[in-house]
Amino acid sequence: MTIVKSATQKSNVKIVVADEESFMRDIVVNALTSGGYREIRSIAKLSSLQDVIESIYPDLVVLSGEMADGDAVDFVRRIRLHRIGRNPFVPVILTAWNAEQAFIRKVVDSGADVLVMKPFAAGQLFARIDFLASDRPRFVVTSSYIGPDRRKVRRGDECPSFDPPNTLKERLAGRLFDPEDLVSRITKLFPPMMRQRRHFQEQELGVQFAAIAKATRENRALAEIAGVIATIAASAAIYAGEMAMPHGKGDVGQAKALALRLRAIADAGRGFSAEDCEAVEKILDTLGIMVPPPPPAPHESSGDGDGVSAHSRPAA
Fold it and tell me: Considering the domain 7-151+159-177 in this protein, what is its CATH number?
């Protein structure tokens, strides 16, 4: 859908431009101004950006991925987690000189809406703004991601999507901004998203522990499971941290105990003992986290010497 934008509607859009390079800030601000946008704040530091998004509701943030006073990509992730700023759904355009794949992957995983590589023309910027106003994707939530649904093919409803508030679209369509209405929509939408995130986190913790418990029973070498131990320790730390947030609900003490025990095992560079498995499984059970049962043993021989299970024998 194409939104027809009048000069008045554009002038009402609140945009924050954050870039440590003054010449890039000037380029972006001048381009936006020439395009009819008037409510523009120019910022040189992440700390200043945080102050701004804590005090107003911008309709769009144009943020450089390279900021001297902090990790800009992690800043976006924290916006999406509602740890900073008033609106976790604010559209974010990230700009960057860094074209390395690892950096691009990090940007994608942060929940930023789009990435624009520097240097860029004004037309490229306007095209991204038009995209966010007309065709912004719905949001999805997983154990480690909140942001636009980038999937090309939907895989059923195992990861349902959410329609985020989009004040950029609304202002450009001529809708009057109502902060109370926006707060109401955020309050209604964000908690179920975080409950879904927690559900996926608990699933992952259960699966990861099941793999470790199986390897422990089989006396597998530490080198074979060290990566899983490190992963579950990191997963538990994130889970405990988010449970302690205002939107988190549950036994924070047990979640922290789980994270501390798993971190101690990972830091010690050792495998799980039977005592570790028993203690961790008890905590998981207290938290209501289900550990998948081990797969069934292969069917035994039917006993007639042909090696074919009675359950698998073809009918006569």
Answer: 3.40.50.2300
